[in-house]
Amino acid sequence: MERHELVIEIAPDGTVKLEVQGVSGPSCMDLTKDLEFEIGKVLATEKKAEYFSVTDKESTVNKIKTERN
Fold first, then answer.
1. pLDDT band, residue 63 (cuts 50/70/90)
2. Rounded mean pLDDT of the chain?
3. Distance of CA 54 to CAs 32, 51, 57, Å?
4. Of 5, 9, 22, 39, whose CB neighbour count within 10 A is largest?
């Protein structure tokens, strides 16, 4: 079984950074969509080379600013 990892960082200004590792292709977006909805507005999405690959590990970073701040 393949290992998937979600790394979450919260900056002092409330910006949340989500990084998915261990997933190839666009399926990583499905892993973060519920969190993105709950946290707030997506400010930026960075699709790394693995996003466009079907054989390599995926790592996509999403930066989210909470609506509460």
1. low
2. 78
3. 19, 8, 8
4. 39
Residue pair 39/8 in contact by the 8 Å Cβ criterion: no
Phi-psi region of 40 (alpha: psi -120 to 50; beta: other; left: phi over 0): left
For residues 10 and 18, give the distance between their C-alpha atoms in angstroms, rounded to a whole number.
Answer: 9
Number of other residues whose CB lies within 10 A of the CB of residue 20:
24
pLDDT at 58: 42
Give domain limits for the chain.
5-66
Please tell me whether the overall predicted TM-score, pTM, comes out greater than 0.70 for this model.
no
